[in-house]
Amino acid sequence: MKSDLHSHLILRLLTLYRKPMGGNGVLYPILGFASCVAFIYMSFGDLKLSSLPKGLSLSFVERNGSHFILDGKPLYVNGWNSYWLMAHSMDENSRGRVSVMLQAGAKMGLTVCRTWAFNDGGYEALQISPGQFDERVFQTVLTRKNTITGIEYRNDPTIFAWELINEPRCMSDPSGDTLQEWIEEMTGFIKSIDKNHLLTIGLEGLYGPKSPKSAVNPGEWASTLGSDFVRNSNITNVDFTSVHIYPDHWFHDLGFEEKQRYVSKWVRSHIEDCDEELKKPVMFTEYGLSNQNKDFQASQREQFYRTILDIIYKSAKKKGSGVGALVWQFLVEGIEEYNDDFGLVPWETPSIHKLTIQQSCRLARIQGLNQQTGNLKQLCS
Ligand SMILES: *[C@@H]1O[C@H](CO)[C@@H](O)[C@H](O)[C@H]1NC(C)=O
Ligand SMILES: *[C@@H]1O[C@H](CO)[C@@H](O)[C@H](O)[C@H]1NC(C)=O
């Protein structure tokens, strides 16, 4: 794997792709939480993202109803977040860590990495100062050519999907109409340029005040933030739905077991929405357990991850809409400055390392992938 390519690939993904903003101040509160996120797709067995052999054509991931499809077969995702890839790809001295992280992910059978595609401060920053954005950075990345492969990003199948915005909220309009219109406009605009890639919003999964599911929310506050999982996700140009899972942020008085029960309910509820109403895949694009809890024990992380991964596996096995999850967040040594209270270096926690591989292998089995070849042979035998 050539780190050069990664740096370019990822570096170029960082330009935020958005229509220039109009004079409407309403977008600012939303953009306070904004990001543009790229999911990079890696196939099993072939760790090389660089120098694709001439003539080898990769397919784009597609959607059929509530499933992802790759080359005519269902695709299930075990993956991770490393939002810091971009920052490191720009620095020659630490560029190598990007390759180390992607290699490490591939070695655990992970196939999708979600990474920030914008810079908040520093080089080519999107947000120059709080609430102030650089219009120049709102320029097209979809038509940008990768300088090594010569492929425009909109035509690049190693990109799994685009995400519009991270955790959109619009508190100034709790009815949800403002955010709904913004998502409709932005998804339409992106699809007018890139019809190859899947598109998701980046929702936390909160239910709005009029949703019959609002009682499932972690608290009453959650329905006042201007977003609604089902309504927003039902927009035609949204290909799959996304949900985040942070029980420590949501509850301050619950014990670990109670949080676990809640997480289980939260995950099942969104799979049910997608199975029964939306008929779209659901990906749990961030899940994390904080080590800052007063009752935190390292073993709880494994239990928490397992609760989520088991539900995904069971859904996938019966061809349900639960198609994958991305842990928040995996790191490699040497980038502690990008850690938060959720991050870990997977090989430093053997139980989590093992669980991660187990999930990759059992999802590969459902997909009918040959476990006697390539990467899977070492991993899953
Ligand atoms: C897509 O879904 C339909 C209906 O469930 C099914 O008949 C068809 O075989 C699926 N196509 C692929 C490529 O999986
Ligand atoms: C989703 O949108 C369709 C029309 O596009 C509508 O018929 C359906 O009721 C909507 N579903 C929900 C759950 O809002």
TrEMBL record:
Signal peptide: none annotated. It catalyses: Random hydrolysis of (1->4)-beta-D-mannosidic linkages in mannans, galactomannans and glucomannans. The chain crosses the membrane at residues 26-44. One of its GO terms (biological process) is polysaccharide catabolic process. GO terms for molecular function: mannan endo-1,4-beta-mannosidase activity. It comes from the Eukaryota. Residues 139-330 form the Glycoside hydrolase family domain. Keywords: Glycosidase, Hydrolase, Membrane, Transmembrane, Transmembrane helix. Its EC number is 3.2.1.78. InterPro entries: GH, Glyco_hydro_5, MAN-like. Belongs to the glycosyl hydrolase 5 (cellulase A) family. This is mannan endo-1,4-beta-mannosidase. It comes from Gossypium mustelinum (Cotton).
